[in-house]
Amino acid sequence: MLAGRRAIVTGASRGIGLAISKGLAELGASITLLARDSDAMYDNVKNLARQEYQEHKFVTYNLLDLAHGKEPENHSFLLEALNESSILVNCAGTTTNTLLARAPERSIIDTIDTNLVAPIILSKLAIKPFTKIGKSQKSKPVIVNVSSVLSFTGFSSPGTTVYAASKAGLLGFTKSLANELRGSIRINSVLPALVKETDMGKKAPAGNSFPVIQMKDAVDNAIELVTDESLNGQDIGS
């Protein structure tokens, strides 16, 4: 289904990002993993489904550098990956896990920069190469942003105020950019509930009322947003 296409997935060293990478690889896409942990990605690349036409690789990159306007030595590898790709999944995310009154200002800024500013800048960098590659392939390029049900529902969990704000911003950005690009690139959001298998899921306070889903459900929703050509400016919650 995705043979001949390359996908960049951020936050792909573990958790939802890695699971989405595996799902896209199983559908035939070549994958570029992007995260800070090069050792984890080195192992992850070897464990992705692979046919003879698939070439998987990884780029070690700190998205806070991107959000802060820095261009580290490996920035050229990021640009090269974008030039080769027609799928971008913005999945990297972090949370303070601290009540707002106690949250250090630096952790607030880093959460917003990782969850919102970095995906915005990555999407900006993707527009030109995605538009170009979209003219030479049948399927439209697509960006999928991993937001959260916290972005628009009444569910809450102590210590997630900044996280919720960043994910709400990402949802608004998705819908606005979809309108701005007028279908030349599809832009969608997946809004998973709490996934217990992730680091954030394991740290969630016991006894909270936050809805829980399986990793497979979050991955299936993300893949639907990638593969269903009729979906643009849409969000799928879990």
UniProtKB/TrEMBL annotation:
<keyword id="KW-0560">Oxidoreductase</keyword>
<dbReference type="GO" id="GO:0016616">
    <property type="term" value="F:oxidoreductase activity, acting on the CH-OH group of donors, NAD or NADP as acceptor"/>
</dbReference>
<dbReference type="InterPro" id="IPR036291">
    <property type="entry name" value="NAD(P)-bd_dom_sf"/>
</dbReference>
<dbReference type="Pfam" id="PF00106">
    <property type="entry name" value="adh_short"/>
</dbReference>
<dbReference type="InterPro" id="IPR002347">
    <property type="entry name" value="SDR_fam"/>
</dbReference>
<dbReference type="GO" id="GO:0048038">
    <property type="term" value="F:quinone binding"/>
</dbReference>
<keyword id="KW-0521">NADP</keyword>
<protein>
    <recommendedName>
        <fullName>3-oxoacyl-[acyl-carrier-protein] reductase</fullName>
    </recommendedName>
</protein>
<dbReference type="GO" id="GO:0006633">
    <property type="term" value="P:fatty acid biosynthetic process"/>
</dbReference>
<comment type="similarity">
    <text>Belongs to the short-chain dehydrogenases/reductases (SDR) family.</text>
</comment>
<dbReference type="InterPro" id="IPR020904">
    <property type="entry name" value="Sc_DH/Rdtase_CS"/>
</dbReference>
